[in-house]
Amino acid sequence: MADVNRGNRPLSPHLTVYRPQISSMTSILTRISGTSLILAALLVVWWFLAAAVSAQQFALADGFMTSWLGDLIMTLSAWALWYHALAGLRHLYWDTGRGLEVATAERTGIAIVVLSIALTVATVLVV
Amino acid sequence: MSYMTDRKRAEGHGSAREGTRRHWGMTKSSVALVFLVPAFVFTFGPMIGRPHAEVVAYFAQPFPALVAALMIVVGLVHFKNGIQMVIEDYVHGVFREYTVILTTCLCYGAAAAGLFAIARIAL
Q1: Which residues does chain B have within 8 Å of residue A95's beta carbon, measured at their own beta carbons?
Q2: Would you kindly state where each structural domain of chain B is located, as residue ranges?
Q3: Cut 0.90: pTM above it
Q4: All domains of chain A, ordered by start, with CATH?
Q5: Which CATH architecture does the domain made up of B15-122 adopt?
Q6: What is the DSSP string of A15-69?
Q7: Touching check for A34 and chain B: CB below 8 Å?
Q8: CB contacts, 8 Å: B82 with chain A
Q9: How confident is the model over B87-103, as pLDDT tens digits?
Q10: Tell me: the pLDDT tens digits for B29-81?
Q11: What ipTM was assigned to the predicted interfaces of this complex?
């Protein structure tokens, strides 16, 4: 190694010393919601694959999807999907160099949480 | 004692061009998903719990079939790239490579299965 002191430097205090804030909470929620969406994605693929194969296979997949567990997963996933989409829009807005002031970013942070819950309720009602 | 130079040690760890390329890739898929997500939620959603024949007839139509196919492919490619970022942040050592390979295979596998299913229903 060209750098003999590698791995032996003092580390600056990280997450543990910070009070939870809108910025950090909305950031980690974006990752958690995005990561958890793989479950719904695989269920949806299973559902389509079952529909393509036979009525019996479809009854199995659709039966799981409409069971209480399936309903719970799909409802939580609907929230994850809306939250992640809104957080993505927020990132696209930031990428234009706007909305980065602390006060504005906190307001958009609260806005995406509220909007994502509203959209989830709307989805549950419509779908 | 190693003869590696500082430059050699920095190479391949995300110099300017590679980093922006990944960011641009995520930007492109996210813009597409802004349109695909609502379209998919309100076409696929109401079909959950419907009879098999109705579901098959519905996804044999061009618009719902194309929305579903694009959502599955673009969504899973977006997931593949996103989860790789997450893995590279939190997973270290050789296990990082294993998880990236595993998630990449899972995403392409699921996308292929979804596309096959929709093609079979629609055609």
Answers
A1: 27
A2: 15-122
A3: no
A4: 22-126 (1.20.1300.10)
A5: Up-down Bundle (1.20)
A6: GGGSPP-HHHHHHHHHHHHHHHHHHHHHHHHHHHHHHHH-HHHHHHHHHHHTSHH
A7: yes
A8: 34-35
A9: 999 999 999 999 999 99
A10: 999 999 999 999 999 999 999 999 999 999 999 999 999 999 999 999 999 99
A11: 0.87
